[in-house]
Amino acid sequence: MTETSTAGREHPFVLHLIAVVGIALSLFQLYAAGVQPLGLFFQRPIHLGFILVLCFLIYPVFGRSRRRGILGWMIDAPLIAGGILVGYWVPANIDVIAASIFPRPIDVTVGIITVILVLEAARRAVGMGLTVIAAVFILYAFAGRRGELPWLADWMPGILGHRGYSLDRVSSQLTLGAEGIFGLPLGVAATFIFVFVLFGAVLEVTGAGKFFIDLAYATTGRQRGGPAKAAIVASAGMGSISGSAIANVVTTGAFTIPLMKRLGYRPAQAGGIEAAASTGGQIMPPLMGAGAFLMSEFTRTPYIEIVMVSIFPALLYFGAVYLLVHIAAVKAGMQGMAAADLPRVRTVLAEGWHFLLPLGLLVYLLIAGYSPMRVGFYAVMAIFASAAARALWNWAANGPTLAGLWALCLRGVVLTLQALELGARNAVAVSVACAVAGIIVGVVGLTGLGLKFSAMMLAFSGGNLLLALLLVIIASLILGMGLPVTAAYIVLIILVGPALSNEFGVPLLIAHLVVFWYSQDSNVTPPVALAGFAGAAIAGSKPMETSLQAWKYAKGLYLIPLFMVYNEAIILGGPLPLVIWTGFIAIIALVAFAAVLEGFLWAPLPVWKRLALLPAIAAVFWPTIEAEALGAAVILVLLGLNRRAVTARG
Question: Where are the domains of the chain?
Answer without folding.
Answer: 1-101, 186-432, 574-650
